[in-house]
Amino acid sequence: MNASLEILASMLPKDVDAALIISNENRRYFTQFVSSLGYLLLTKEEAYLFVDSRYSEAAAAGARGCVTVPFRKLSADMGEILKRHDIRSVMLEGSAFTLNNAAETDKILSEYGARSIHSDELDKLITKLRITKTSSEVDKIIRAQRITEQALTETLKLVREGVTEREITLELEYKMRRLGADGVSFDLIVIAGEKTSMPHGTPGNNKIKPGDFITFDVGALCEGYHSDMTRTYALGYVGDKQKRVYDTVYKAQKIGLDALKSGAVCKEVDKTVRDFIYQAGFEGCFEHSTGHGVGLEIHEQPALSPNCDTILQGGMVVTVEPGIYIPGEFGVRIEDTVVVTADGCINLAVLPKELIIL
């Protein structure tokens, strides 16, 4: 087994003989192998990756830290392993199993005298491992970030009166892929004008006009790792209220970044940012969390939210993304992805955040 699997095996409770992991992201995290289907069975002695014929050759060559088991009938092939290691209890990855999958797995295990454990305990153990990032993981996020920034910089040259949100979005995704991205981190958000008051608005065919704010919430995928960044620009000119809102968000984001360090509590960082925005006269205009973890998933732990008691540690990767949204008028959000350190954070974004009028 590789180091991450050995650590997870050592973390399993004494009365648990094995763990079964089925989510794409966690299988990839532990084995470095990408597939749309697979079963990672971790015993105290060995790890087994069950894949069907579509992936058997690739898994044998590319999966790390585990024994690849091509299966034709999962119950029979997994049953052999259960008997070999005298498995009596298997902890399931609770968040990944549907009711149907859980029932099917229960049936397979019971055929061989084993029981399944339905809880969130395995998920919590995996989160403890994934919540801090290795230098290799951070490097992948940085590469995704650089692709995002270059693609956005090139795309901004195309922003002008009359161009549509959708046209800009398509061009931005094309440039990301051309620059080497495996894909986009999420459905890219490029919205303008009144639509910027919707934190997750959808790009449409409406045309950008002078005086509009334009929100770019964008990210690229690099070797499975996400980047996440938001910038708000204006076309032609802005009014006094727009300037005031932008300046408030800009200052709030800096306050959030300054509050990050190992030992800080997530909900307290969120409160610091939220209080500043509310005291500036925009109470009720910032409802989403201040930030979230980023890695193999675009939203991971920890969360910079009012309900998260997690204490930040060095190596955690989080976003800081305050915003102000005024329905029927406009909205502003500024977002960076950073790595928490002992005495602060390292900002992975280098694009300017001052108000830029295109």
Characteristics:
358 residues; alpha+beta; Creatine Amidinohydrolase, Chain A, domain 1; Creatine Amidinohydrolase; 2 domains; six-stranded mixed β-sheet; three-stranded antiparallel β-sheet; 10 helices; 19 strands; 37% helix; 22% strand; elongated
| Helix/strand class | alpha+beta
Count of individual domains: 2
Strand arrangement in the largest pleated sheet: 4-3-2-1-5-6
What fold name goes in the CATH topology slot of the largest domain?
A: Creatine Amidinohydrolase
In short:
Helix content is about 35%, strand content about 20%. The chain has about 350 residues and is of the alpha+beta class. The chain has two domains: about 5-130, Creatine Amidinohydrolase, Chain A, domain 1 (3-Layer(aba) Sandwich), CATH 3.40.350; about 135-345, Creatinase/methionine aminopeptidase superfamily (Creatine Amidinohydrolase, Alpha-Beta Complex), CATH 3.90.230.
Task: Describe the model.
With 358 residues, this protein is α+β, with helices and mostly antiparallel strands. The protein folds into two domains: 128 residues, Creatinase/prolidase N-terminal domain (Creatine Amidinohydrolase, Chain A, domain 1); 213 residues, Creatine Amidinohydrolase (Alpha-Beta Complex). 37% of the residues lie in helices and 22% in strands. The chain is built from ten helices and 19 strands. The strands form six sheets. A six-stranded mixed beta sheet has the order 4-3-2-1-5-6, with helices on both faces. Helix 7 packs across helix 8 and helix 9 runs antiparallel to helix 10.
